[in-house]
Amino acid sequence: MSFDMEILRKSADHVYDYAVAFRRSLHMHPELSEREENTAAAICAELDAMGIEYESGIGGHGISAVIYGQNPYHGVGIRADMDALPIEEKTDVSFKSLNLGVMHACGHDIHTAILLGTAKVLSSIKEQLPGSVRLFFQPSEETIGGAKQMIDAGCLKTPQIHSVIGLHVDTGIDAGSVEFIPACAMVTGIQSVITRQTDPAEAVLITVGKFASGTKENIISGEAKFSGIIRSLQMHNMEPVKARLEALCQATAMAYGATCQVRFVDSYPSLENDDTLLEWVLESSKAALGPEKVFIRKKPSLGADDFSYFCHLSRGIYYNIGARHPGDADAHPIHSDLFNPDEECIRTGILTETAAVIKILEEERRQWQNY
């Protein structure tokens, strides 16, 4: 990288307190998916103060901002989700949620604070950036998939965005570290099923999580309903598996003289890290943090994140930043009412995002020059 890494570290340190303060304010005033009006207003106020151009009200309360570098037509995107969860917070932090029954229990307040901190750093060196940077403050990750709505609104255009960066806090990893998953990273929704017709080498999972029948213990019900989720790392399994699953249910019902209806609701597609971006961001992260702080996870995850839409309509790199307090063997995971990440992860996120943007822009500029 042509940028002095020590200068980038100092820049991340310089904006750290600002980002922490914003995160705490956001944490105290969480808003549910599709209701992020005040959150969006707070972000817009910060962008105004930085002098960064933006559009708001995208896909609901989404915000798309841009930092113009030397090339105003080509750029890299960075995404942060900003919605909270319907959870009553039980931590004892001084900045706990003031909104009854709503909590930033998935770290989206941290993701947003990191992106604002990164924006401050990148805006201060924009004249030196080989290309531009698009900032996606995305709503509704936990429900309807706000990423797709922002993409459909044209946020990957003008400047043209070919690569998008995303991250997520992880209390399974010590703060100050990052973790990458090669190739397939995260999947959700109806994609595969564990059957004898599925290649056993392919990771699949099916779970029936809800079963309901009857209204009283002494009345035989004439109807039963059950639902679940099917997960896989291979998108090509989805349609054949859905067909097999429906055929199995219909045949079973017929065998018992009953009828059945099968309904599938598709969710987010698979999230696949781009191999080239992975190589570049691994390199920049090792330079920023030291090789001992950068980990490769050998097993993929079956979690869920609508960042996957960016991966299918551009190329994406999604990684985890450690948020576990050092020595805390019983750190609470995301979606817990006791979720309490180490805020040091904010510094790590700002530094690695900044380094990744610069690395990608530099490498992509070399590619432009070869054409």
Provide structural commentary.
The protein has 371 residues and is α/β, with parallel strands linked by helices. It contains eight helices and twelve strands. The strands form three sheets. An eight-stranded mixed sheet has the order 1-2-4-3-5-12-6-11, sandwiched between helices. A two-stranded antiparallel sheet has the order 7-10. Strands 8-9 form a two-stranded antiparallel sheet. Helix 3 links the parallel strand 3 and strand 4. The longest helix is centred in the last third of the chain and has 26 residues. About 4% of the residues have low confidence.
Query: What separation lies between the terminal Cα atoms?
Result: 21 Å
Helix content: 25-40%
Summarize the biggest pleated sheet.
Answer: 8 strands, mixed
Backbone shape? globular
Biggest sheet: strands side by side, in what order? 1-2-4-3-5-12-6-11
* Number of helices, where a helix is a run of at least 4 consecutive DSSP H or I residues: 8
Number of strands: 12
| Strand coverage percent | 15-25%
The radius of gyration computed from the alpha-carbon positions, rounded to a whole number of angstroms, is 22 Å
Uncertain segments of ≥5 residues (pLDDT<50)?
Answer: 184-197
Looking at the chains present, what oligomeric state does this protein adopt?
A: single chain
